[in-house]
Amino acid sequence: MYKTIIINSKPEAIAHLKYAISESNLGFTVVSSYLYNKRASDAVARTRPNLVITDLPPSKEKNLDIVKNIHSRFPDIKILLYTDRTDFELAKSAVSQGVSGIVCPGDDSELTAALTGIKGLLDRQATQKKRDRLFDQLIVSARKQFLTDIFMGNITGRENIQKKAKELSLGNHSCIYCPFWIAIPNYNEYMTNRWNYDKERFLVAVGNFLRPENKSFEIQNIMFTNGEIFYVALAETSDATNFINTLRLHLTNTEHNLKTMIGLTVNWHIGRHFMSFHDFIDHITTPILSNSNMNVEAIDSTKENHALLLDMYKNVVISAILDKTPRLKEHLNYIVRLLSQSAENVLSDALSEFCEISMQNMAPHLKENAEFKRMMRSLSEANGATAQNICTNVLFMVCREAGKSNLTASSSTVKRAVEYIQNNFARDLSLEDVAKYLNLNPSYFSRFFKLHTGFNFRDYLIELRVKKAKELLITGKYKIYEISIMTGYKNSKYFAAQFKAVTGLTPSEFANGEAAKSTGA
């Protein structure tokens, strides 16, 4: 049933409309009716009906005010104008304000026809919303699988990954992605002495404890390796602070419940968060999948250790993603201990080779770094705990530099944004348009653009338009109203006001001054 509100200055008209709508059997139900007053507007905002049937107010000066108000605030609500006013200008104006139909009182067949047309619009709208919801669900599901495929090595090649990421960024709106780790210090002991089932059932059990009760966010298991589980938490929100605080509280409760209920000790830490899927993928592809040619077989030829070393490399890469956590070094130390257990006989050689591989794939510019060279020489000469400590410090440097390498991607994004603005400044360009072009969340793009250019988007656009206007004024070929249009202003007075705000001169004063300079006056 489609909720309907009637607004009319005549009680008898309201009564007739209720009766006619009931008799039409088109699926409309009148939830409330009002005479013209403030309560009518409040009811629309509170009830959010599917249809509003309204007369024009008694005061001709206000004419379509209520129609404009409803359409501007709630564009999905259909509006049917029920009035005996039939002048053409009114009809044209009503249609431009979002009115779906105009019906004269007294002709119920006309009313039924209008309601039938509106029902068709609402049916299509409802169907499209269902499709959009299903599409969003499929996209989220596809993103989850995509992340898993990246970290399991099922998808390789930087270009392929970024192309797929761009496709999956469609429909991305106010969504936060936050990676986090759960580490199990006593994993081997626990699996041997406490857990009586296989690894898969263990992961399911831990996942059940992680499941949020309030559905404010979702948690996706991305990778499991050697007693550590990598997850990504996803939430459709732009409130990053509240989301991170909620996630921290949830993980604290999970840690307590795992200890209390199944005797499992875990540690967790949260990485940096990302305001869009594309941003997340852009960050991880910088260090991760240049490793497709990684020759870890040079360290150990056995298949078992080859797989282990690949897992360790993925751990280091993910550590780079978690570059904002204060526990990064602790996490890297854990990785190094596991790596050391697999190469006791050739410890310094294995650790050195592993650091070299990590550097080449994650931060190749470190190859000529004097400090990196010094640490690598020390590592090749060390043994035992000393070798492990040096290796941890080397990997820490690599992870930090890998995080910095993302600045290249940031610079590329800024360049693309600036180029797009410069190519489109003359049209009605909004921050949302540029964010959509870059596959970024608008609020994230706003902060990103300010951080990297020093301008907020609006100020940058105004400065650019004024700069172009000055160039056109100097030529002396165009009238001011023509330049106004050419630089993206539909209103020449507004253009003049913004020009003066930036330059201190009106366009005419600026043009006259330039003309005087050219003639030597």
How would you describe what is shown here?
The protein is an alpha/beta fold. Among the domains are: 2-125, Response regulator (Rossmann fold, 3-Layer(aba) Sandwich), CATH 3.40.50.2300; 293-454, no CATH class; 459-521, Orthogonal Bundle (Arc Repressor Mutant, subunit A), CATH 1.10.10.60. The protein has 21 helices and nine strands. The protein has helices at 11-24, 38-47, 65-73, 88-96, 108-152, 158-168, 187-193, 199-210, 240-262, 277-285, 303-321, 328-341, 347-362, 370-381, 384-424, 431-438, 442-453, 457-475, 480-486, 492-503, 507-519, and strands at residues 2-7, 28-34, 51-54, 78-82, 99-103, 175-183, 218-225, 228-236, 267-270. The strands form two sheets. It has a five-stranded parallel β-sheet, with helices on both faces. A hairpin with a 2-residue loop joins strand 7 and strand 8. The radius of gyration is 32 Å and the shape is flat.
